[in-house]
Specification:
By secondary structure, this protein is of the alpha/beta class. 56% of the residues lie in helices and 13% in strands. The longest helix has 25 residues. Helix 1 crosses helix 8, helix 2 packs antiparallel against helix 3 and helix 3 packs parallel to helix 5. It starts with 7 loop residues before the first strand and ends with a helix. The structure holds ligand Z5A. The site of ligand Z5A has 26 residues, from helix 1, helix 4, helix 6 and helix 8.
Length: 211
């Protein structure tokens, strides 16, 4: 397995968890530390992958398997053309979502087996594993109320509360299996409190990587 000097950080969470402000906090901290990083997102983060994102979020009646395969098709473009080259050049990568989202949304949400997702992960992503994942955990109802303030909803956002309960379970299962990497942020709290938790986790992470 390749060990990169540059680090790969991901943000995860279900609907209305507050990833946008979390991303701002995270990138400001990296900037303050003088770290050279790129900010990206999934699905997307590369021109072809952004086309696939459009299909994913705005097509009617996508079959669950098609949804999963498109997520991984976009991810293949993203990993090979953006994430891996950046890490190889010593540039940190910060991504709004990555593979954990596929386990939560397509696994628990759509009922696709984790073995299938593991197979695709191995094939497409290989050894590109995040060094740190900040999982913004919010009560589905709270998240949906926050998201309702937004004007429009994409195809996946139109799902109802039980779907987002499953997403939360999926993320929690991932976090339990890999507590060293996935740090849970209580996103039910105020934006300031969430910000403080993120900064605390980043300081801990920095001291770990600096040895
Ligand atoms: N998806 C998938 O299914 N499988 C995969 O493998 C991947 C993704 C990679 C697009 O992702 C969809 O793709 C997503 C999962 C799926 N679908 N869903 N749902 P995305 O990340 O681009 O889209 P998103 O999940 O809708 O995220 P978002 O809109 O970028 O962020 P958010 O966390 O949902 O919400 P926000 O905009 O940051 O915050 C929502 C509102 O709450 C906003 O007005 C904030 O000001 C407010 N807020 C935020 N924090 C707080 C606190 N702490 N208190 C009060 N109010 C707050």
């Amino acid at each position: 397995m390749t060990t990169y000097q540059a680090k790969f950080i991901t943000l995860e969470g279900s609907e209305g968890a507050g990833k946008s402000s979390a991303m701002a906090t995270l990138t400001k901290q990296l900037t303050d530390w003088g770290i050279n990083y790129i900010q990206t997102r999934e699905p997307g983060g590369e021109p072809n992958a952004e086309h696939i994102r459009e299909l994913l979020l705005h097509s009617d009646h996508l079959h669950a398997r098609t949804e999963l395969l498109l997520m991984f098709a976009a991810r293949n473009e993203h990993v090979t053309k953006v994430i891996r080259p950046a890490l190889e050049q010593g540039i940190w990568v910060v991504s709004d979502r990555f593979v954990d989202a596929s386990y939560a949304y397509q696994g628990l949400g759509r009922g696709i087996s984790w073995e299938t997702i593991e197979y695709l992960e191995q094939w497409v992503v290989g050894d590109i594993t995040p060094d740190l994942t900040l999982l913004l955990d919010v009560e589905p109802q709270t998240g949906l109320e926050r998201a309702a303030k937004r004007s429009t909803k994409d195809r996946i956002e139109q799902e109802k509360a039980p779907f987002f309960d499953q997403i939360r379970r999926g993320y929690m299962t991932r976090a339990k299996a890999d507590p060293e990497r996935i740090k849970i942020i209580d996103a039910n709290q105020s934006e300031t409190a969430v910000q403080q938790q993120i900064i605390r986790q980043l300081h801990e992470f920095k001291s770990t990587v600096e040895g």
